[in-house]
Amino acid sequence: MISSALFANGVRIFGHHPVGNAPQGIYCVNGQCSQCTVLVDSIPVKACMTAVKPEMRITSCEGIPELPAEDLRPEFTGIETIDTEVLVVGAGPAGINTAVELGELGIETLLIDDKEEPGGKLTLQTHPFFGSREDCYAGIRGIRIADILTEKLESLDKVTFMGSTSAVGVFHDRAVGLYSRGRYLLVKPNAAVVATGAREKSLAFPGCDLPGVYGAGAFQTLLNRDLIRPSERLFIVGGGNVGLIAGYHALQAGIKTVGLVEALDKCGGYKVHLDKLRELGVPIFTSHTVIRAEGKETVEKVVISEIDREFRPVAGTRRGFDVDTLLIAVGLSPINELYQKFSEFGIQAFTCGDSSEISEASAAIFSGKITGRKVARELGYDVEIPSQWEETEGVLRSDPGKVYDFKMEEAGLDKFPVIRCVQEIPCNPCVDSCPRGSIVIEDDTIMGLPHFEGECIGCMKCVTACPALAVTLVLPSEKKKRSNVVIPFELKHDFISRDKEVTTVDMDAEVVGEGKIIDFREAPGDSKRLLVTLEVPEQDARRVAGIRVFEPEEGYPVEDNEEVLDDETIICRCERVTAGRVRKEILNGVRDMNILKGTVRTGMGACGGKTCTDLILRLFRECGVNPEEITLPTDRPFIEEIPLSVFAGIGKGDGNARK
Q1: Rounded to 5°, angle at Cα 445 from 442 and 450
Q2: What are the distances in angstroms from CA 9 to CA 17, 196, 296, 467?
Q3: What is the pLDDT of residues 122-150, one digit of tens each?
Q4: I want to staple 90 with a disulfide (CB 3.0 to 4.6 A). Which of 196, 427, 507, 618 is the partner?
Q5: What residues make up the domain containing 379?
């Protein structure tokens, strides 16, 4: 995409906004905002959704653009209409599995996605998945799961996939408008499935609009999909799985994760993800928030502060960190506008995956399977939905459960695994991996805690299989009063060399002592994971969970000298509307967000209110307005920008549908 090509060539600023000449960069890299807009041959496009082509002329949107040369009068054509039994919108894990279920039943299905290839967010996930191997490919990395699902999809004659295609509107006559590579089409399905996923939530604070402040998903797109190293030093806001995993992906790419703040008193993501960061030397600041980002044209510094139970900054606790990137990972919102319109017009429609309920991709996989069967039933097909499927989906959607104290098991053996899985999460690859069946879950569910009992042959398969890197293996050493410990390691190989002295840490990131690397090799079947053998003092072997790679940074004191959300903070990025302007309207009695469109232009920009709506609702709450008094903005077609020419049939298409 253009945005990635620009980043790869060191371009971080894509233009300057006409209001205040503010620098513009990226934010979502998913087509949901408009921060990356550029001109391609004098036509405005979203850089993150437009592929680079030869001879393409790319310029910024600053000033009045040069108009395209006048062409000959075009020949107008009609709008093509497609009929299909089922339309599935979104080819992520939920949408693909819906289409696969339908295709296997012989039901004609059209699957569309606004990206070129299917896979959705799976194409950004380089880490192994949780869950169970049988149900949702646990232990396999997300990018590989995308390949597996795509191969299934391509084997089905009844499923047609159209990439670079968006559903942009639903109409009362049961037609759905599609924008596909310069063409406008209409499709009239007998049933529709919305599996459009989720968009990242925004966060407002002074400097939040600076280039260098962007979503964790945007970072993963640049890094994992397009192989661009977009940062040297980054800070993260948000301790859910998205933020924790993004921080780990950064470390894998050799990018320094300087720190992470979480407003609550504990991180909401899996503890095993949190442990990975802490063990490697990333400081985690709970009950903290970001106060501001600073920089002339891009982010140069971030200021954080401790907060009290009312989420107010605690005086004298502000600290600064020098960084070039600030990742926002404060939650996701379902992309469900299309589903709401289907429901409004009484059209048979279903929703699954994150567009239905935010959860892990493993749950989205199962959600799609169930939805495919439900659609078939509604169309009159006699199909079974196994009762255990919905139970499994419920388990996979579960929030992280109770955290137990870690108990070191007395194995009484010279070789044995140490399993540091102490939180109830849906995961069991370690159980399946043991050839002796010596790793068990007592309550026989994937939410239980695994433990070792029986015989260990030292095969290291459990160390390889654990998605969380939470299993180490203790082995005897040839040296007296020494033991060998095999740890999983996934950072760049530059950190690992034989005979290197390292600092060992336990699962709570406390220093255990010193160790020496005596061997390392790739894990069988997984070139991204090393099995590193450390020689450590015998008394340390059970405690060693990993090695310290970076020394945690503490930042430097910063004075308390401004409000957290001052009146100049940008709320609407597209129109650069400030918090002060919105507050003034609210205090003057405005309760209808459609009126705000007319008075201060919030929601009138190219993103259509996708990034500012939640932030405006926050301002209503801060002003003491009862949520029941607020009228939300009215959604109308089209839900993304479309050149007017395509409605006259002038747009050129290139036939992108494929079986």
Answers
A1: 45
A2: 22, 31, 20, 34
A3: 999 999 999 888 888 889 999 999 999 99
A4: 196
A5: 81-198+334-396
